Amino acid sequence: MSRILIVDDDEVFCTQLSLYVKRIGPACDIVGTLKDGLTKAGENSYDIVFLDRVLPDASGLDGIAGFRETASQPEIIIITGQGDPDGAAMAMQNGAWYFLEKPPSFDTISLLVNRALEYRQQKLQFAERKVLQRDYIIGNSPKLLESLAVAAKATESDGSVLITGETGTGKELFARVIHQNSCRAKKPLVTIDCTNIPPNLAESLLFGHVKGAFTGADQEREGLIAQAEGGTLHIDEVGDLAPSVQKSFLRVLQEKSFRPLGAKKEVPCSFRVIASTNRDIKKMVQEEQFRQDLYFRLVAFHVHLPPLRDRRDDIKLLVNHFVYKICEDSGSGTKGVSKDFMDCMMQYDWPGNIRELINVLQTAIAEATNEQVLYPHHLPQTVRINFYKKTTLNKQTAVSDDMRFELKQISGFEGFPTFKQFRTAATAVAESAYLDEVIKRSADKAGEAIRLAGVSRANLYRLLKKHKKSLDR
Predict the structure, then answer these.
(1) Is the Cβ–Cβ distance between 179 and 189 less than 8 Å?
(2) pLDDT tens digits, one per residue of 155-183
(3) Where are the beta strands (DSSP E) in 315-446?
(4) What domains are defined for the chain?
(5) How far apart are CA 360 and CA 366, in angstroms?
(6) How many angstroms separate the CA atoms of 190 and 179, rounded?
(7) pTM above 0.85, yes or no
(8) Within a 13 Å sphere around the CA of 190, how many CA atoms are in the beta-carbon half?
């Protein structure tokens, strides 16, 4: 039986919605906070979650990722107030399946629930039918699986694919996987690196040329597009294409033919396009830095690759895989990984993503020489410093966040203190902790500290003097 979770603190609305859901057929549970909803979703399998945008403990939009990371990966329907277009847009941008305006009718709920359940069933059937061969794409985090699901759909079609993501996230690897799982797998995969195409040589490189087409063309040369005939053309870093080359590409995609330089006839071509970029291509279109018509030609399927910091659960798998592979390739013998080494790797944000992780592991293995286990001191300084800074900051935050006081925390009393004595001592401790936080958040700037604390300059400096603290500037 299908199962639905309602996360909303409006009891009247929840009662009405649950009655609608039960009339349709699925079982239904109700909770009033995001925390309780995530707990419930972790304990049970749900097909759909009705999630209120505004909850007592958080914004519902902030919880979408948490629900999608549970084992059942339910479809999320965000509940918004009537006439809230911004809320609807934000819901879609955050990965919601749909949005629902209050108050809904039974027909609306019935249509939404049935469509969501049908969509979910089709998605599960497709996942069972289509299993990607994804060599070297390591990980099982929800965000990576979402990217793989889109890639799997792309392999069923001959439509163009746009792969976006930060540098080092594996865009070229995904392009190869899509090609290898498509009907064109037996034909070539040709990659064009747009960062290395000079505009004055672009047409010759892409379309080729006949003998005598220009000075120095002493023989006929086949272009990259002709080499991809029947297969896949991977346009890497498509956002770096010069405007003149964008126009040439658009024509090739529209006409399915090209003319080598100096040739008298058009040459028909049949290839599938996979483009990739680390740039914000939509923003480039808005700023007229990239042709809108070419963009729409490239984006029949859009695969976005998450940065490594958004899929930390995969870091352990990646570390173990690449430590083994690097050791095997170098012939240095397999090395183990200590817990504190892995802790350092898990805490780092990886601005260079998987490419940086591989480089760091290569350095660590080289540093370890004949040692059998990798430890933090084998890592580059940037990774170690980041770990120590984060762990220190976490400890400070834990202390500053805990504003509860117990008698054993405050010393100096003779016997059991009166309430007034205890309150005075506790206030002094709280003031000192608060000032530490103000100094940290203001970066030692007096003007910012005054703004944060909401007190006058005189009062702030009086408190600082009282607790023997100071601001640098």
Answers:
(1) yes
(2) 988 999 999 999 999 999 999 999 999 99
(3) 336-337, 373-374
(4) 3-126 (3.40.50.2300), 142-306 (3.40.50.300), 309-393 (1.10.8.60), 403-466 (1.10.10)
(5) 10
(6) 10
(7) no
(8) 20
